[in-house]
Amino acid sequence: MERALLLEELPEIRSFRVWRLRYEDRFAKDTDLWVHFAIKVASVESFELGIIDTNRQRYELPQFAYKNTSVRNLALWYCQLNPSGSVNWSSLVSLSFGCLELTEGVIEKVLSGCPNLERLNLEGVGGIHHLEISSVKLRELIIEDYANENNDLELEILAPYIQTLKLFGYCSEIRIRQRNVASLVTAVLRVNFAFDDVEGNLDKECRYLKELLQSVAHVENLELGPWCIEFLSILELKGWHPPPSSRKFLKLNAALEQLDFPGVCSFLQSSSDLETLVIDWWYDYEERNLLSRYTNEDEQSRKFETCNFNCSFPHLKTIEIINFHGPLSENKSLLPLVKYFLKHATVLEKFVIDAIFGGSDVSPDYVKMTQQFLSFPRSSPHASVVFSYQ
Fold it and tell me: What domains does the chain contain, in order, with CATH numbers?
């Protein structure tokens, strides 16, 4: 059937996708035909090849596939890359690699052969310890579930021209320094750096998060995931103060608990230029017991009660709490959080709480919350509070 397809006259094809292909080595020539058809015969603009790894047998991309001037978007999963010569993907704008092992030599060849690349996505990729991106056109780097087989090695990123960096999932250690990402405008840190469970690793994670936050202190837009938010309070208990930042937009992905307040408020104190704050309540983190490894319950309460959370937000105009869910009795931190921001955001214009609830009728609990929100004092005479339901 594959050979017949190559002989038929077909209309212009711009996109070709072979996904979840269960692969064994005996299918290599057939898979070569699909690749040849896509990039040589049809000259598609978008090609996605997703292999299901069977018995640890991986499809090796044929050498002819490394020379192509038509493909703009390329995604390769569970493939083996081994270019014998130079790579020429001159039209490529977006490149995604998933679940494969790379080496510095291969990734260097690939990037040198993609002069117009704008977006690089590495998901479940391992084997590299140094990623240097020198192209001024490559503006977005996404890394998800980076795996390093050697815990003593780290992935160092040198990308002075990228503007967006996104880190997702469970990762081995990734090292970035501010001078290496000097052009960065947006950083998304929805990542969990859970090192092996041995003594001293909590201190290592704290030290690592400090370095990570210092390296992105210059960005305008920052997004933090639950792991980062929980460790902020641990760092605050240890006496760490976040460096001053120039961020104007901050998104926190967590259903905040009262124990999160010290770290979050300390972090906000370093964000004097902040204009927009978004809190996505939908994200939940399974483990919330890290603080107990540092202090007992009585000591936690004493330290949190003596913390000074008073700070002003001279530029904060918009606050949004999205995907709020659950009854007020299970979200006791919401009311003091709203009250705190209304008191200290002196130029606030809009405070939106977007709630999700089940059933056809509005929960009486939400009606009660709305009434309480509207009764809180506001330091900004222009602040409006909107409570919406989905």
Answer: 13-184 (3.80.10)
